[in-house]
Amino acid sequence: MSIDLTEDTITAAAVAAFDNTKDPRARELFQALVRYIHDFAREVRLTDEEWFTAMDFLVRVGQMSSPTRQEFILLSDVLGLSVLVDLINHHRGQFATESTLLGPFFIENRPRVPNGADISGGVPGVPLFVTGRVLDQDGKPVAGAHVDTWHSDGDGFYDVQMPEKLHDRPAMRALLTTDAEGRFWYRSITPKYYPVPTDGPVGEIMRASERSPIRPEHIHFWLQAPGYDPLITMLFRGDDPYLTTDPVFGAKRALVVEFARHAPGVAPDGTAVDVPFQTVDWTFTLLRQRTVQAA
Ligand code: BEZ
Ligand code: FE
């Protein structure tokens, strides 16, 4: 029984308290967490006040969180943890599209639309025509893949950040399906670089550390097809001034794409457009899921 513990003996006691955890992986996680968090407190000589501040901070992160405001994910993002977990788990190699973080703005409530749809939800902006192709690592089309896409408007706001203006309707997001040649295409409006939400507790961290909250301009994609590893990724605008200072560490050179600018004319889907518009075209490569051989 642990009694009369000291700064030097409490860690072993707290680690041992998890010895009977049946699930070996859960035991490993609990015990490593205890070791690291104790070492952290000892290293920085954590004060009572700092500990209370941290507990209050986490409570406020929880209170801020909702299905449309993922403050805990945002906290993980600005600490670099989300991208680290992605890097640990998704060694995609040179033949598959790089992944990156999900971010807090994906929501389940998005319209399922046919290829060619206008997904802007009526939000005004510079027209954008996105064409994509989904292939496997041998260059064969992946038909029937689910393609989730979402992005901000031209002022850098996602639909979920302006529920009153949009009457809670989803905009600039959709779920599409690739055709027999692995193609998908849609119309929307061009996004813009934007600050990660700073009106919650995570914003306090950004201000205290004088970090730029601006994410470079991007479009999100989440590709899923039976038999393939899901791919969560983004495409970034090449000439974006914030590409190298992403506050959530998600930008990658391999995901930089040209947002081609066009004078009024005919869009890739044959639509006549009477204002300047932009196009993005990209080929995504999925990795086949590794099959685990039964012993
Ligand atoms: C996003 O790209 O939507 C995002 C990612 C991380 C934090 C905030 C926003
Ligand atoms: Fe985003």
Overall tally of domains: 2
Total strand segments: 13
Question: Could you give the distance between the termini?
Answer: 41 Å
Count up the helices: 6
- Main sheet record: 5 strands, mixed
* Spatial strand arrangement across the major sheet: 3-2-7-8-9
Note the main attributes of this structure.
295 residues, alpha+beta, Protocatechuate 3,4-Dioxygenase, subunit A, four-stranded mixed beta sheet, globular, binds fe (iii) ion, Intradiol_RC_Dioxygenase, dioxygenase, metal-binding, iron, catechol 1,2-dioxygenase activity
Helix-strand layout with pairing:
Layout: H1 10-16, H2 24-44, H3 48-64, H4 71-78, H5 81-89, E1 127-136, E2 146-150, E3 173-177, E4 183-189, E5 194-195, H6 201-208, E6 214-215, E7 218-224, E8 231-237, E9 256-257, E10 260-262, E11 265-266, E12 272-273, E13 277-286
Parallel strand pairs: 1-13, 8-9
Antiparallel strand pairs: 1-4, 2-3, 2-7, 5-6, 7-8, 10-13, 11-12
Helix pairs in contact: 1-2
Bound molecules: benzoic acid and fe (iii) ion.
Explain what you see.
The protein folds into two domains: 9-46; 79-286, Aromatic compound dioxygenase (Protocatechuate 3,4-Dioxygenase, subunit A), CATH 2.60.130. A five-stranded mixed beta sheet has the order 3-2-7-8-9, with no helix packed on it. Strands 4-1-13-10 form a four-stranded mixed beta sheet, with no helix packed on it. It has helices at residues 10-16, 24-44, 48-64, 71-78, 81-89, 201-208; strands at residues 127-136, 146-150, 173-177, 183-189, 194-195, 214-215, 218-224, 231-237, 256-257, 260-262, 265-266, 272-273, 277-286. The chain starts with 9 loop residues before the first helix and ends in a 9-residue tail after the last strand. The mean pLDDT is 94. The chain is an alpha+beta fold. It contains six helices and 13 strands. The protein is globular and about 80 Å long. Strand 7 and strand 8 (231-237) form a beta hairpin. It binds benzoic acid (BEZ) and fe (iii) ion. Fe (iii) ion (FE) is lined by residues 103, 105, 218, 220. This is Hydroxyquinol 1,2-dioxygenase. Residues 23-93 form the Catechol dioxygenase N-terminal domain.
